TrEMBL record:
Keywords: Flavoprotein, Oxidoreductase. It comes from the Archaea. InterPro entries: FAD/NAD-bd_sf (IPR036188), FAD/NAD-binding_dom (IPR023753), Ferredoxin-NADP_redctase_2 (IPR050097). This is NAD(P)/FAD-dependent oxidoreductase. It holds the Pfam family Pyr_redox_2. Residues 16-295 form the FAD/NAD(P)-binding domain. Coiled coil: none annotated.
């Protein structure tokens, strides 16, 4: 724990204004804003996550394609730390509200008190059964991120639900070779969707996959099927749904949407006072720039709640005018970080 954190006077537990759970693009963007806006902030990150799996970064303006997810997140983490925020590698197992209104976060090796909690823990894609190519080299989950690389290429879509059928038809905007692989499972999309599929040049392959061939660079070359056929593919998309990491939100009493995401307002506020949620765990497109925008909006909203000045007329009437000894409203630790910023 760095020197920017302060120990609570009574319990000795490290105390912050803002605790962000999850070190993805959304959580780190929130932390960047709250730290730069003068609020002692900690990010508790277990590592991994959807963004960390990216072999290349797509659709993030100013970031080139050759930047991996781990490189992107590593740079963002260092930015938060350089501005005076703390980043702790741990898995938060429990969050409870204290009698004084603060939140107590308990991890495997960490205990923290915070005035505000931000949940940026995302979701996990359901993976189909093997054989499968490597994620990012023939196995993909985000059409909006990766469709561009499959222009004029042979593409598969795995799945049996509405999402699989519609992604397959959308991919016809990029290529004329699209197969839906049901892998021996029954079709679950509606009769109306079936009529749409039949009206589009999409092949539905019902036989399961028995083998896979890869190129020397690790990219998928083809699948072998139980009827003995071999079909070549550059890559494709697995559409089996998502598991949202809402355990902490549910324990806090946050409302959930029917699709499993957390109910939030336009600034990331949940139904529980003092708790925010950002990124893929909330409704909307699962895109890095979108997640960053959600994190920024939450950071700004938290700043408006926590900032010391301006005082209200009621406060000034009760406490008197603000004296020069009371300003600035930023902690000494963050002031020191700001003064030394860029010296290294």
């Amino acid at each position: 724990m760095s020197e920017t954190a302060g120990a609570d006077a009574e319990s000795g537990v490290e105390s912050y204004e803002v605790a962000v759970v999850g070190g993805g693009p959304a959580g780190l963007s929130t932390a960047l804003y709250t730290t730069r806006l003068g609020h002692d902030t900690v990010v508790v990150d277990r590592g991994g996550g959807r963004a960390a799996m990216m072999l290349d970064t797509h659709n993030v303006i100013g970031v080139t394609e050759d930047v991996s997810g781990n490189e992107f997140l590593g740079t963002a983490t260092e930015q938060v730390k350089e501005y005076g925020g703390d980043v702790v590698r741990d898995f938060v197992t429990d969050i409870e509200r204290e009698p004084d209104g603060r939140f107590r976060l308990q991890g495997n090796d960490t205990e923290i008190l915070a005035d505000r909690v931000v949940l940026g823990v995302g979701f996990s894609d359901e993976r189909p059964e093997p054989p499968l190519p490597r994620t990012g080299k023939g196995l993909h989950y985000c059409l909006h991120c990766d469709a561009y690389m499959f222009i004029d290429e042979s593409v598969y879509v795995m799945g049996t639900g509405e999402a699989a059928a519609h992604v397959a038809m959308i991919m016809l905007n990029f290529t004329d070779e699209v197969d839906i692989l049901t892998r021996g499972d029954d079709i679950e999309w509606s009769d109306e969707t079936q009529k749409l599929v039949e009206a589009h040049p999409v092949d539905v392959i019902h036989e399961d996959i028995t083998g896979m061939n890869k190129a020397e660079d690790g990219w998928l070359e083809s699948f072998e099927f139980e009827d003995g056929s071999v079909r070549e593919y550059k890559g494709g998309f697995a559409m089996y749904g998502s598991n949202y990491n809402t355990e902490l939100a549910e324990a806090l009493g946050c409302d959930l949407n029917d699709d499993g995401t957390i109910v939030v307002d336009d600034h990331g506020k949940t139904s529980v006072d003092g708790v925010y949620a950002v990124g893929d765990i909330t409704p909307g497109h699962n895109q890095v720039p979108v997640a960053m925008g959600k994190g920024a909006k939450a950071g700004l909203a938290i700043h408006k709640e926590l900032r010391t000045f301006p005082k209200s007329l009621e406060e000034i009437k009760a406490e008197g005018p603000i004296t020069e000894t009371e300003v600035p409203g930023v902690s000494a630790e963050l002031q020191a970080a700001a003064r030394s910023f860029g010296d290294d």
